[in-house]
Design a protein that fits this description.
The protein is mainly beta. The chain has 3 helices and 15 strands.
Length: 173
């Protein structure tokens, strides 16, 4: 696992299309045209971004989302927000440090990141409550943005300046 101790020193670009990671020695790196700069806040070495999620029921939820490259699903939301996806299916969500992760999956209307990027009809996963009880620390997020979202972009994480740079790639649509 590569985490905060590495990312705090170097901006890191992830290219999902060509499957490579580029590490920059300093904060002087190219920002290509049509890129979006999304601010995030670092709390205890973890990045959190502000977003809004619109459910199929029409409800809009302001969300503080943990940015987690290791999470496979596009969007995880706390069970408190399962009403955003009225029709869900019970599903195996993956394996975590605590073992098998079970829950439900459904779709939401949209996910809007900082008013700059809107993803339509992403899949949202709602882990069972056991997922939260295994965590030794307080859960400070409404949900998690995972690899299912990040893979749609060329992503540069810049912990020094507390932002990520997103540029759409061929997987966006």
């Amino acid at each position: 696992i590569i985490g905060y101790d590495f990312f705090k020193h170097f901006p890191v670009k992830i290219n999902y299309v060509h499957e490579f990671v580029r590490v920059y020695r300093n904060a002087q790196y190219p920002v290509r045209r049509n890129s979006m700069v999304i601010p995030f806040e670092l709390v205890d070495g973890k990045p959190y971004a502000e977003a809004s999620v619109t459910g199929l029921n029409g409800k809009v939820v302001s969300a503080r989302l943990l940015l987690d490259l290791g999470a496979s699903h596009p969007l995880y939301l706390n069970r408190d927000h399962s009403g955003l996806s009225p029709e869900t299916i019970t599903s195996f969500l993956g394996k975590g440090l605590s073992g098998d992760l079970m829950g439900t999956k459904g779709r939401v209307v949209s996910l809007d990141l900082s008013g700059q990027v809107t993803l339509m009809q992403p899949i949202a996963a709602y882990p069972e409550q056991d997922f939260y009880s295994v965590l030794a620390e307080e859960v400070l997020w409404t949900g998690i943005i995972g690899g299912g979202i990040f893979r749609r972009f060329h992503v540069t994480f810049d912990y020094l300046n507390q932002h990520m740079i997103l540029r759409k790639n061929m997987f966006f649509n």
